[in-house]
Fold each of these.
Amino acid sequence: MTNDLSTVLVTGATGHVGSHSVQRLLAEGYRVRVVVRRPEQEDDVRTLAGPSDRLEFVTAALTADDNWDKAMAGVRYVWHHASPFPFTPPADPDEVIVPARDGALRVLAAAGAEGVQRVVLTSSYAAVGYTPKPGDRYDESDWTDTAGDLPVYIRSKTVAEQAAWQYTREHAAPELAVINPTGIFGPLLAPRLSASTGLVRSYLEGASPVVPRMYFGVVDVRDVVDLHLRAMLSPAAAGERFIAVGGPAISFYQMGRMLAEHLPARADRVPATELTVEQVRAAARTEPALRDAALLGGRIPVISNAKARSLLGWQPREVATTIADTADSLLRLGLVG
């Protein structure tokens, strides 16, 4: 892909997707402006991205208007990744929902005011497929029902994306394209774990001998970034959302089998037992970490990536390759005991 040295603004650049985004955009020849919450985060991003005279920074927060005009000045495209992800559910759900929603609206408003052409918003499959439906087949026409009893992160992603689409219906600019990734795995660029990569580490260390019968979509972080790039450049992507999933849904147990096959020396550490749906539901009453598994209830969702493939020519990696590359990066970075 080629470009005209356009400037792309990236939020959430210290995260798993964001760090790969900055690296890919620089490799493609773009100028990259990164929004950080604190100036000291600049060093983290520079370490991940490598030396470049096309990388610059602005300090701004999702919860305040300060500096967003400066951040957007001269920018053609925005990749908005940043969104709260609580490892422990807060007592007040608005601690997560409000920054996610208002942050997305703040980015869109600032982008529109400064003449940005297109914002590519990183939403989540959480906004698509967490409301059961007959047949369990999901595509971009589906929405999670926020009226249900859902974990706060799922609600926050759904509310934020819905607010973003409402904003674009009421304002002429900027254009909006949305990416809805399933579980994001793939190689780490630095020794900083995400929820997904931390799960792989726990398997390799033997910390999860028993897993719930739960099926989920997997996508490679590099393919998520590639889909952002395609959604940024394609005229057909304006006003569209795209599910990012690498292939058929897998279970926690199946992921363990993939790791055992790739790393036979650690095969005795990966999960060997799978809880039944009834066992998961019973355990979820006292174990909050199993709530998602109980919610999904052993369903095997059929998650379509046909739209991204047909409209944007997207070709994701095989899931087994993604899981293997995740494990290799954890070992390379010394994150597995």
Amino acid sequence: MAVFDTTRTTYGSHGLFSRIGGFAANMIGMLSAWNDARVTRNALSSLTDRELEDIGLVRGDIDHVAASRITY
């Protein structure tokens, strides 16, 4: 015979350590995405206008390109 405990109020929820681990993983992911955008912005900013034109960008596109890489 199977028994199912219905008296536990936390049944099916995540424990405290799981929530802390998820929060830490989320923060690390956000930090990594921010750093990738920063590196992209710096790399594109170091190019000359001619080099940017060769890849189909203008200087005003740099922030948009770097921001589009961020996915939270």
Amino acid sequence: MSGDRVLEGLPQEVQPLLRAYLKRVVPSLGAALESLVLYGSAVRGEFVRGRSNVNLLLVVANLDGEALRKLAKLHARWKREQVVALLFTPAELQRWATSFPLEFGELKEGHRLLAGRDLLPTIRLDGGVTSELIGREAKANLLRLRQRYVEGGATGEAALILLSLSMTGLAPCFRGWLRLRDRPIPAKTEQQIEEIGRSLSIDSKPLLEAWDLRCGRISPGPVEVPRLFDRYLTAVEELVRRLEAAPA
């Protein structure tokens, strides 16, 4: 399949980047390349230039020191283009999927094969996604939010960065929760947030504000940033409490 063919339907902003990446990286890896998959916002139709990463899953035959040094050279020019690659060997995929079913569930359900063979359909999510797992992920997100805000000096700059990071990290939890409850998963993340708000009876407005910030739709000033952070923090704390109280 040609490079242009595999890129059909993807956001116009990422197609030239991926075309150049495929032209450079695929021949360089040669037979060592097992699979190259695109996932995340570029596949879900929520890519925002300058804000979203281009998320890749790169499966290669081995990842010893020599292989990592080769990959580092290949990826040096792509770092500034926000290309981020998860690196695995074929044998590692199943083992890691068992440990991280939420993340690999996202990968299985929303990805685009760019080169090699698609290994994700063969992955089993033993134990699958549970209410306990989603609650644990949300708690870890809250702990990181608090810790990194303090480490960042509780500045407005730290708040802006952390709001986007935290919201991006919570989005798979929302989709996992809806999937677990056999509820339809709306196409857009903001619709998923609204559905989570209704499902758990929480105020979804601060979560929506953080998503709008992440997507570049709002630009709060220095006075509003701390208020937005406080509203978001309260909303995540309530989210965690509701997830803890929800039936398994």
Amino acid sequence: MFNIMHISDLHFGPFFVPKVAESVLKSAAALKPDIIVASGDFSQRAKAAEFAAARKFLDKLPPVPLIVCPGNHDVPLYRVWERIFTPHALYQEHITAKLNEVYQLPHATIVSLDSTSPLRAITNGRIDQAQLDFAREAFAAAPADAVRIVVAHHHFAPAPDYERSSVMPRAKRAIDVFNDLNVELILGGHLHRAYVGNSLDLYPGKDRKHGIVIVQSGTTTSRRGRAREREKNSFNWIRVTEDSIRITHYMYFDDAGGFAPFSRHIYPRADRQYFSEPVEADIKTDLFSR
């Protein structure tokens, strides 16, 4: 049906790696995504020059729908007056004016949520009830056959290594709501290493049949990778078909001269629950074709 290139945590500023960013642009041109998701932390310290550089980079990506959300680094940390009164001003000037947004695309409805919480939890983030109501209203208007996707910077599930990865407060409440709304996919960043799993890995919840596929991207263009992706860079390539969600985790390797596939994951679509026939034989062909 369609392909998503999922990048995150660009961190324009002192930790940004230009040669890796050039490789991202080359990969995007070669893969030809239908949608690009950039899940927050465009800047390192929410400075105007950093946002301007991020905007210039985003404008070089293929001309397809670009879904974004702010990250905690897109909010001033030490400029307290700005953090209190105009926390997203520069993000809104350079990246996008809306903090919570609905994207109605062919075959998909994508809800982008601002998980930053400048006054309460600048690191761990929050999704409040008003935002859950916003998502409920957005998905209520979605076509019946649309794939339902949520994008937020902060994570709803911890990485398997559990290094500095406490989930957002009340993440389980959000997962229950997303299950009720038939959300199939959650995309995020923040952890600075990739994680691909299912909400059932974290929380059985009210719906124990299929859960929600959760895909976290590592830092795509900075030296701030953590744990198993320390000083490494990654992005995700997601292919949504009629019966499956297939994710390829790409990592940057100097000896490969750029990004290369590192791991692959495949899940049945929520309404399928299981595969009716073997899928191993077509994984390679499917992941690298449109």
